[in-house]
UniProtKB/TrEMBL annotation:
Residues 14-355 form the UDP-N-acetylglucosamine 2-epimerase domain. Residues 361-408 are annotated as: Disordered. Its EC number is 5.1.3.14. SUPFAM superfamilies: UDP-Glycosyltransferase/glycogen phosphorylase. The keyword Isomerase applies. It holds the Pfam family Epimerase_2. One of its GO terms (molecular function) is UDP-N-acetylglucosamine 2-epimerase activity. InterPro entries: UDP_GlcNAc_Epimerase_2_dom, WecB-like. Residues 376-387 have a biased composition (Basic and acidic residues). It comes from the Eukaryota. It comes from Hemiselmis andersenii. Keywords: Isomerase. This is UDP-N-acetylglucosamine 2-epimerase (non-hydrolyzing). PANTHER family: UDP-N-ACETYLGLUCOSAMINE 2-EPIMERASE.
Amino acid sequence: KVAPVVKRLIERGTSVCIVNTNQQHVMVTSALKRFQLDSVDMSLISGNIYAEGPAAIAGHIMLSLNKFMHQVSPQVVVVQGDTTTAMVGSIAAFYNNITVAHVEAGLRTYDFQNPFPEEFHRRVVAVPSLLNFAPTPRARRALLAENIPSSRIWLSGNTVVDSLFDSLSKPVPGTATALLQRIAGAHPKGRLVLVTMHRRESFEAHMEDMCDGVLDLLSQVPDAVVLLPVHTNPSVQATVKQKFGEGQKRLIICDPLEADIFPFILKEATLILTDSGGVQEEAVSLGKALLVMRAATERPEGVEVGNAVVSGRSKEKIASLSVKILTDKAEFDRMSQTHYPYGYGNSSVLITDVILSHMKNGKPTSAPMSAGPHEGGGDKDPAEKQKSWSSHQDPAQRGPLHPAPHVQSHASLLPAPAASRGGPRGGADLVVVLTVFGRATLDLQMRMLQPQTAFKGRK
């Protein structure tokens, strides 16, 4: 998603350093190769750190990024999305007084448990970001509702559409052709169902249900051929192996698809089942029927235009909705129309313009501009839209964004009660974290605590 921005910045003479935290080595290496980019490989994460969870990962990344920013002293730090790296990168940049640009800002479910921990991450990233690039009008409204000033928000569209259309403009790779031939060999008139699963909140029991839903789909639709590229996460691999073994004739299991292959497979799919965010955007932009195997989505635009349905993770719902889409022609036709709610493939143009304007003038262009979907829009053909958003066009000539209506607050922003998170762990009902500023003041602080009711008579 960030590659189109990097490429445009380099083309316009900007010195760009890509920091690769090396968390998904094979997948990242593939993406860098596809876009002919180099990176600084920080190799921050060792295998045992993953088992310790997001807090340990965040701590390791923070220390290394802070040191790196001291050494390089960039003018702008660009973070993308809602990963741990994006959140920590924005905080490290803020601590070092460096401008933060957030690509894909403003996505919200208003539920900190879905997705976990990404919903929290992206809420945090918005606070220090001076340049917030919202992919849709809804995302922009969410930022405004959180009191992010409109002068810090640009409606840009999503850069994943740039990458998608760029990939599909190239010749079909031989590896993609070979995989498509393997799929065709599974059934003479088979229909491809592409399945991807990887989210943390989907692990274990939820993912087992998702796998069972896929098996039920296969048993009820004789011409369905499922392709499941298995994510590198050990938990995902263990569940898939337990449920599917090595696969079967109409269930093809493979390694993660490289960045230059995936768009061509996606294009040939009849139905997509996914818990991924980016795949939702890509599928809708290609007019594909889509089942979102999550409790909630921060990309409801796909549902609103009719391509996507949020199924949840129960096997019954996944199977029944999939079967209906594949066997009900009217339903399938309704869900297979092409829309462009996430942009037209030129989002990186505006983002690059704004970043360079900030670097040159010390501030971004005077008013937010839009290179993405407008309020009430999203169906214009990308080829036609591209003509009106030339990379040579002065950013100031692009129209201002429309004012956003008030966005309701949501009670579900509150963390889930302890019972729903599995109950207390260990013997303590409450943990108090004390920050002690200097050992010399420790005795004073403890003496001040003694008169408080909870500490009377205790050491």
